[in-house]
């Protein structure tokens, strides 16, 4: 949660952006070890959806000077990407590409990011 009165100049200054960015780097690194057959399928989908959270926050944040509703729309897309990540994580676990501890850590991380995104969207509407 952002500190009251703290000026946020860019999307990357948002705590949710920082957490999503860090999580996406971890996901990216881990998926590089997935089987070759998955590099253009599951691994790619997982990388894209995890990075889309930050991309949507950045694009929406840049447009908020014109419309808070537009920023809220992009936050909603980030929420969708977060849900997509959670789905791909389940596939990765069920296919035995990640460990139970990795599954738990990622689920916890993305659940927290999801909650932060929902809270941000509520503040915008």
Topology of this protein?
Blueprint lengths: L14 H17 L10 H22 L4 H27 L5 H25 L1
Helix pairs in contact: 1-2, 1-4, 2-3, 3-4
3D structure, described in words:
The protein is mostly helical. The protein is built from four helices and no strands. The chain has helices at 15-31, 42-63, 68-94, 100-124.
Average pLDDT value?
A: 92
Percentage of helical residues? over 70%
- Low-confidence residue ranges: 1-5
Largest sheet: none
Going by CATH, what is the homologous superfamily? Answer: 23S rRNA-intervening sequence
Outline: elongated
Q: Can you summarize this structure?
A:
This protein is an all-alpha fold.
Please describe the structure with a list of short key phrases separated by commas or semicolons.
single chain, 125 residues, mainly alpha, de novo design (two linked rop proteins), 4 helices, disordered N terminus
């Amino acid at each position: 949660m952002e500190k009251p009165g703290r000026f946020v100049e860019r999307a990357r200054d948002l705590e949710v952006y920082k957490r999503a960015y860090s999580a996406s780097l971890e996901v990216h690194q881990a998926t590089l070890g997935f089987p070759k057959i998955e590099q253009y399928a599951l691994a790619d989908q997982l990388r894209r959806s995890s990075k889309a959270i930050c991309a949507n926050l950045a694009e929406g944040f840049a447009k908020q000077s014109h419309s808070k509703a537009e920023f809220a729309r992009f936050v909603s897309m980030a929420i969708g990407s977060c849900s997509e990540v959670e789905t791909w994580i389940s596939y990765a676990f069920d296919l035995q590409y990640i460990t139970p501890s990795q599954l738990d850590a990622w689920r916890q991380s993305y659940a927290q990011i999801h909650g932060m995104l929902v809270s941000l969207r509520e503040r915008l509407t």
